[in-house]
């Protein structure tokens, strides 16, 4: 077969991802925190972008004042939505300045007379008022205005602009710094101090060391016995239980500090897996104690701290900020609106671009500012389109899940991305990006937008399908109301659900139960029996103590 070369013309269609389209897709799936960080970077990079201030500002001469744009729509289902775009400008009105200036001039030009007449008018000697000469007063003012170490960190008399309130906030003490302070006192040998510092750097946020320290000994060039000796000293550091390698060792350290690490408690700590399974009978056998003692020992274990390191400088939890608010309307429907606090407010400074266009002469500078103008204009349009798309998707979700907002989780309908995409005439991928990392604040709490998209479970009698989230809620209600003498197995739960019209398999019930972290029927029976036994033993013990304290 001979190989030849030839020229061909082919016509084909393909989707080209332009940089602007990629940026719009990226903005659509960002959360409000990530979006704020992205906009801050663009404000630093693009000189033609400016942030819209929240406070009142005077209009720029020659620049049209943007008006407040609002739109609202409602349909037959009673769902309405509104959006606010643009920036609000207000003018501060005050009294006429001409009269005030005239009065000031009359007071200045007024003849006050001699010193004695002025003292009689003020009913006070002028020595108490003008105690300083002008030169001395100027020198004192200059000395007060000079920065000092006291005024730099927030102390001393200062105005509101220079007052630093954050200077009075104490710095957080981290776990590593807290342990390093104790390490400097515990070891005098530089070699052991270096080993201790290396081990402290390996401690995680919960206060635990890695289970295997053999690699640490090899890296430090020390023997395993020397590393273990340093670890034994670190176990005595504050907080109690820090630098442990597992949960059993952490609890044992705390029990030694409390002088409660007897053989029975040691056996209990070594068999924490039985305690997790609530196998009280086997625990009582290993510890060699009766029911009352094992109950007291378990209660003492529960009072210990399994993660002592979290007391120091842990990572701050970021509060969830909703992107959409859903409120009941006056007509019985629901009002959907965007959270304006999460929407970045940026504008394109056209005046600055116009002035630059008149002065810039180099071709490179002209192309740079032209690209900045295009990027800024596209970013503003992309932010506006993102807000409108979120509002449109949220409105359709509220329309589809009206029963949830009215009656609760039990009335949550099965919903998928295709149903919402077809209703608002968008692609499923767009709806998927909109619902990612977005939250909705409702009268029943705050939920992620993906929460309202649940799978459907067929009805046992051929009726309307049920939502998977509603079925989970019903399973949890059945388990919460079960009695100790009649613990519901997965097969029994399946029968109860089929009686209520839900056709579900046993493995599906087990999967939903494990997802909600609900133990099996055997484990729940053990838990409730142990709780019932401890509740019955407590009144008996109290009655015995009261009987012992009664006078003979």
Describe the fold and architecture.
It is a single chain. The chain is an alpha+beta fold and 552 residues long. Among the domains are: 175-245, Orthogonal Bundle (Arc Repressor Mutant, subunit A), CATH 1.10.10; 246-311; 476-543, Arc Repressor Mutant, subunit A (Orthogonal Bundle), CATH 1.10.10. The protein has helices at residues 19-29, 32-45, 97-109, 115-122, 134-145, 149-152, 175-186, 190-202, 214-220, 224-234, 247-257, 263-270, 272-276, 280-287, 291-302, 350-359, 363-400, 402-407, 417-424, 428-434, 468-480, 490-499, 506-515, 521-549, and strands spanning 49-51, 69-74, 79-85, 324-328, 334-338, 346-348, 439-442, 445-448, 456-457, 466-467. The strands form three sheets. Strands 2-3-5-4-7-8 form a six-stranded mixed β-sheet, covered by helices on one side. The longest helix has 38 residues, at 363-400. It is extended, with a radius of gyration of 37 Å. The termini are far apart. The model is unreliable at 54-78, 81-112, 130-135, 142-158 and 545-552 (pLDDT under 50).
């Amino acid at each position: 077969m001979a190989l030849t070369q030839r020229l061909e013309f082919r016509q084909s269609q393909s989707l080209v991802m332009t940089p602007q389209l990629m940026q719009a897709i990226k903005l659509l799936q960002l959360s409000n925190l990530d979006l704020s960080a992205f906009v801050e970077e663009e404000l630093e990079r693009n000189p033609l972008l400016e942030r819209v201030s929240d406070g009142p500002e005077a209009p720029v001469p020659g620049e049209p004042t943007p008006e407040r744009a609002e739109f609202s729509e409602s349909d037959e289902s009673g769902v309405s939505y509104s959006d606010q775009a643009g920036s609000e400008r207000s003018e501060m009105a005050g009294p006429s300045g001409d009269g005030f200036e005239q009065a000031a001039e009359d007071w200045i030009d007024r003849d006050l007379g001699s010193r004695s007449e002025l003292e009689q008018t003020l009913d006070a000697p002028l020595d108490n008022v003008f105690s300083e000469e002008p030169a001395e007063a100027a020198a004192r003012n200059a000395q007060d205005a000079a920065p000092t170490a006291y005024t730099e960190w927030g102390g001393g008399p200062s105005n509101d602009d220079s007052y630093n309130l954050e200077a009075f906030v104490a710095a957080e003490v981290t776990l590593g710094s807290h342990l390093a302070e104790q390490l400097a006192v515990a070891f005098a040998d530089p070699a052991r101090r270096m080993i201790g510092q290396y081990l402290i750097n390996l401690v995680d946020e919960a206060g635990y060391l890695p289970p295997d320290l053999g690699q640490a000994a090899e890296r430090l060039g020390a023997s395993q016995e020397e590393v273990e000796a340093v670890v034994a000293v670190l176990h005595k550091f504050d907080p109690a239980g820090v630098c442990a390698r597992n949960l059993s060792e952490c609890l044992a350290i705390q029990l030694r500090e409390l002088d409660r690490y007897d053989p029975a408690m040691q056996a209990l700590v070594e068999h924490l897996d039985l305690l997790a399974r609530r196998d009280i009978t086997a625990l009582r056998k290993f510890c060699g104690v009766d029911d009352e003692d094992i109950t007291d020992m378990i209660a003492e274990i529960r009072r210990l701290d399994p993660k002592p390191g979290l007391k120091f400088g842990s990572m701050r939890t970021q509060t969830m900020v909703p992107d959409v608010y859903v409120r009941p309307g006056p007509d019985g429907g629901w009002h959907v609106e965007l959270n304006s606090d999460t929407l970045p407010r940026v504008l394109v400074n056209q005046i600055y671009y116009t002035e630059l266009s008149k002065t810039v002469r180099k071709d490179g500078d002209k192309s740079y500012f032209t690209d900045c103008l295009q990027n800024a204009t596209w970013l503003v349009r992309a932010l506006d389109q993102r807000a409108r798309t979120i509002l449109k998707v949220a409105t359709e979700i509220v329309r589809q899940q009206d029963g949830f907002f009215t009656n609760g989780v039990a009335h949550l309908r099965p919903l998928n991305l295709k149903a919402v995409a077809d209703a608002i005439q968008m692609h499923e991928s767009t709806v998927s990006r909109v619902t990612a990392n977005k939250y909705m604040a409702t009268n029943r709490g705050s939920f992620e937008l993906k929460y309202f998209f649940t799978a459907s479970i067929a009805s046992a009698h051929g009726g309307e399908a049920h939502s998977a989230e509603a079925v989970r809620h019903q399973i949890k209600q059945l388990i919460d109301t079960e009695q100790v003498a009649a613990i519901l197995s997965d097969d029994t739960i399946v029968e109860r659900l089929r009686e209520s019209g839900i056709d579900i398999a046993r493995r599906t019930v087990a999967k939903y139960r494990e997802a909600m972290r609900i133990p099996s029927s055997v484990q729940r029976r053990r838990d409730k029996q142990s709780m019932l036994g401890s509740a019955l033993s407590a009144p008996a013990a109290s009655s015995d103590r009261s009987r012992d304290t009664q006078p003979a």
